[in-house]
Amino acid sequence: MTSRNLMLLGLALPALVNLTGCLGLSGTFNPFAMGPFTPIPVQPWMGDRIEEKYDLRRDFRTPIMPPIPEGGPLPLCEDPPTEREILRALARVTRGVPYFYEEFKDDIEFVTERLVDRIDPPRFYPLIGPAQLHHCHWKCTVYWTETIQSDYPFPVKLQKRRVEVVYIDKDHLHLCVSNPKAAKEITRELTAY
Q1: Cα–Cα dist 83/77, whole Å
Q2: What total of structural domains would you count in the chain?
Q3: pLDDT, tens digit, 9 for 90 and up, residues 77-122
Q4: How far apart are CA 176 and CA 69, in angstroms?
């Protein structure tokens, strides 16, 4: 071994020994002693952002439904937006600093009202083929109590009743086919019936 390699080994060995425990040879605390298992502080709102990025991305895709049966009743928009969809459409609560400024929404009430329920004539959609667009538009009124709170430098708590209206579209496509046998096959493939 060359003298250069021996010198590097001599410098690396004490550094490795120093990283092996919570207290190194010098007796000081080493925060990275756990190696890859060292805990990393994460903000509380980070989980919500990750959920929005990965779990909720399919919420904004237009669903493709089976064909509308000939001679049967037209489908209705019977599923109003969920409370989760409505809350995501509202303006977010301000992310404050604990004890200095915090904002909350309490006593939330939802009222949904169907505004539009109509089906367009068939047309060709790229990547889908011939289909009919079913328009389902909802008016969602949300009532809540807004609470703004601060505990420092002196305690203050303000509460005010709020109202906000959100319009949500839950449009979807119904495939169109020319013969009834193909309609039954497509319906069976899409719904497993």
Answers
A1: 17
A2: 1
A3: 989 999 989 998 999 888 888 889 999 999 999 999 999 999 999 9
A4: 10
pLDDT band at 181 (very low <50, low <70, confident <90, very high): confident
Strand partners, 169: 137
SS (H, E, C) the chain: CCHHHHHHHHHHHHHHHHCCCCECCCCCECCCCCHHHCCCCCCCCHHHHHHHHHCCHHHHCCCEECCCCCCCCCCCCCCCCCHHHHHHHCCCCCCCECCCEEEEEEEEEEEEEEEEEEECCCEEECCCEEEEEEEEEEEEEEEEEEEEEECCCCCEEEEEEEEEEEEEECCEEEECCCCHHHHHHHHHHHHCC
Q: Is residue 191 part of a domain?
A: no
pTM of the entire predicted model: 0.69
Say if 12 falls within a structural domain. Answer: yes
The span from the CA of 183 to the CA of 86, in Å, is 34
- Domain of 22? 1-34
pLDDT tens digits, 113-163: 999 999 999 999 999 999 999 999 999 999 999 999 999 889 999 999 999
Asked which of 30-39, 46-55, 131-140, 163-172 is least confident by mean pLDDT, the reply is 30-39
